[in-house]
Amino acid sequence: MSILDLFWRRSKPSAPEARERLQILLAHERAGTSQPDYLPQLHRDILEAIGKYIDIDQEKISVEFENAGKVSMLEVNVELPSGGLVAKPQPKPKPAKRRAAPRTRKRAAAALPKGAAAETA
Amino acid sequence: MSKIITMTSGKGGVGKTTTAAAFASGLALQGHKTVVIDFDVGLRNLDLVMGCERRVVFDFINVINGDAKLNQALIKDKRVENLAILPTSQTRDKDALTQKGVGKVLEQLKEDFDYIICDSPAGIEKGALMALYHADEAIIVTNPEVSSVRDSDRILGVLQSRSRRAEENLEPVKEHLLLTRYDANRVERGEMLKVDDVLEILGIPLLGIIPESQSVLKASNVGQPVILDTDSAAGRAYNDAVSRFLGETIEHRFMKPERRGLFQRLLWRTA
Asked: CB-based burial of residue B139 (10 Å sphere; 0-12 exposed, 13-18 middle, 19+ buried)?
């Protein structure tokens, strides 16, 4: 094969592709070095939260963090299934829990002025 | 004023140990008192490449733990004057390397040596971080190949953020690129990244190009740093790189393929 190689047309050079792939990848990775550590967890949490209501593909969601000078941007992209919003059947909320929720909220609200008072004191 | 130079790469198998052995020998040959330290705890190999594996009694970890004196662990090279090797431990775990312990040994070595070469393990784990933490200069050993270039880029990021110089806001670690296993013939055929490609991507100054050479394997087979093989292209390339490191201006060689006659080419290709 190696001798015939001399006479045959050589295959397309692959080095330019290596160079191009590296340039794109490293530009991306270098920008990503300042990404906060919680990004993967945030990604999972967003996916989980949306997944509760809509059937989405794991691959169809991207969470990116961009740093441009003084401005940081968190970009969340969710590609919805082609059929539009397919609502997942929601489990009927238990009445007990519903009652419990406002109560805790009330308590939290009640605690607020106390805390504020403590602060001013 | 002695200098700490770390050989690092991120990726394994690119030639860090070969380079550490060659560089340390080269600096010693030029009259500088040099010590080379193996930081690859558990997978020591510098002793083998330097051909002193049967003379190891105490090691780096023994010294850090206070089980041995530095002088008991240092192995004086038998071929090159001014050269010493500090092997690492074969058995202990990587946690044995502590920043404080390593720092103390390096301070002690600084009293006796002009150059302290740290041979980093692959990866970006503790051993590698320890090897680069104290560096004044770093030689990034890279192959003209995508995964090696990417890992070199990563390790440059680590150097710029996690070295002592970065942490203490001192002048940054001086970075040098050493391109190893370069095959000018394959570059010419468009099968391998060019020197310029790698330089453009990594953006650090070029210290040398070490051509792919059979003499590297031959040298490690017999435990002799390849720089001592002055007939080989790799040996000469390392010599050039050491001289450049010491401030000489030497043109880069081995970037163009050697011209062979048709007969030689046929023989070479079928070989």
From this structure: buried
DSSP B165-180: HHHTT-SPPEEEEEEE
User: Per residue in B250-260, pLDDT tens?
Assistant: 999 888 887 76
Instruction: Say if CB B8 and CB B23 are below 8 A apart.
Output: no
For the cut 80, the answer to whether the pLDDT of residue A70 exceeds it is no
Residues 6+ apart with CB under 8 A from B15: B9, B141, B143, B180, B181, B210, B216
Listed in sequence order, the residues at least 6 apart from A70 whose beta carbon sits closer than 8 Å to its beta carbon are none
Q: For residue A103, what pLDDT band results from cuts at 50, 70 and 90?
A: very low
Q: For the segment B198-223, what is each residue's pLDDT rounded down to a tens digit?
A: 999 999 999 999 999 999 999 999 99
Nearest residue to B49 via CA among B60, B36, B61: B36
Query: Token digits for A77?
Result: 């992209």
Gap between the Cα atoms of A31 and A28, Å rounded: 5
pLDDT at position A105: 42
Please compute the mean of the pLDDT values over residues B144-155 and round it to a whole number.
Answer: 95
**Residue of B160, B183, B193 best to disrupt the A interface, most CBs of A under 10 A:** B193
The shortest CB-CB distance from A15 to any of B193, B265, B266 is to B193
Q: Does A23 touch chain B (CB under 8 A)?
A: yes
Measured CA distances, A37 to A41, A42, A54, B159, B163 (Å): 8, 9, 27, 19, 20
In A, minimum Cα distance to B200 occurs at A23
Please indicate, yes or no, whether the overall pTM of this predicted structure exceeds 0.80: no
Per DSSP bridges, beta strands B3-8 and A61-68 are: unpaired
Contacts of B194 in chain A (CB under 8 A): 15
